[in-house]
Amino acid sequence: MTTQREWRLTPHEKEYRLQQSTAEIPTPGPGQVLVRIRAVSLNYRDLIQIRNSAGRNVAGRIPASDGAGEIVAVGPDVTTWQPGDRVASCFFQSWTAGRFEMRHHQQDLGGTIDGVLADHVLLSAEGVTRFPNYLSFSEAATLPCAALTAWTALQRGGLQAGNTVLVLGTGGVSIFGLQLAKAAGARVIVTSSQDEKLAHARSFGAWETINYRSTPDWEKAVWQLTEKRGVDQILEVGGPGTLEKSLGCVAAGGQIALIGVLTGFGAPSGSLFPLVTKNARMDGIYVGSRDDFHQMNRFLEQHQVKPVIDREFAFDEAPQAYDYLASGNHFGKVVITVT
Ligand SMILES: NC(=O)c1ccc[n+]([C@@H]2O[C@H](COP(=O)([O-])OP(=O)(O)OC[C@H]3O[C@@H](n4cnc5c(N)ncnc54)[C@H](OP(=O)(O)O)[C@@H]3O)[C@@H](O)[C@H]2O)c1
Question: Residue 1 above 70 pLDDT?
Fold first, then answer.
């Protein structure tokens, strides 16, 4: 096979739509590996791109940051990888270790550079990682963004056994937050708009659950559940519409990991002063480095954490997979298989 299938984002009115096309299978140059993609997972970010909610020009771009597959060819100078190695993509191709630098914004898969929704993709030899053997390609494809973001947030906040962690909703980041924090010995509170999803979260070890629709003052419920102490860490995926409540239920000395924009990109309502009175902190989190990914993989293996995949779609059904993610009916991750 010398040609391959790929999906690309094409402008459509004020948004984008997915268009499938064929292209030559590329050849890896210096510093690159060619990966035969077996599975791709979607993130809310992929909805932001296709809806053009962030006003970013992604015309012509292959979308999606999260893929897993096997290396089929390596560039002339690449000695670290061989054909047959099973790898997952790193969201930021250039962020291998250390503190984040602004230059990495030019190297985000499916954003500034082509992503992974294709039969084969060229990736940086430094922008892929091995994943634990017990994981399938579909499971590994859920790790690069959602799992690593939850991991980085929890690590940055100094997660310890016995801590209480709050995750908002039951999407990809939050369910990884539940699984990782639970595996580390924390008590996890999960919120959701649906009682069935809360029951599901309890089957994955949630300590307490709250329906944020029937309990709009959920921060008060969290406060009561924690005997007026609050939670040590919050994976804040809601953004401006939930931040004030998160500030209301974070514990003294606790951490709010600012991650998401599910309620929009606007300014938060309310005062940030609770951070001061509680001696608490807020950390901006943007996925994580390849080194963070390695550390997370070791933790996943040690605790045999299995990613939660709600539903898998075939490659040709990518638009349906996007629609399903947009419906919000999923629990955990949505995957597109590429075979
Ligand atoms: N900074 C980063 O590095 C980073 C990385 C990954 C994701 N993110 C951001 O984090 C957010 C979550 O991403 P994701 O991929 O995990 O999303 P996702 O899988 O699409 O999760 C969507 C779920 O979030 C819940 N939700 C929606 N509105 C909510 C609200 N007002 N309060 C509480 N929960 C709400 C719903 O859960 P229920 O159905 O249970 O109510 C919904 O099903 C997005 O804004 C994304 O852009 C940021």
Answer: no
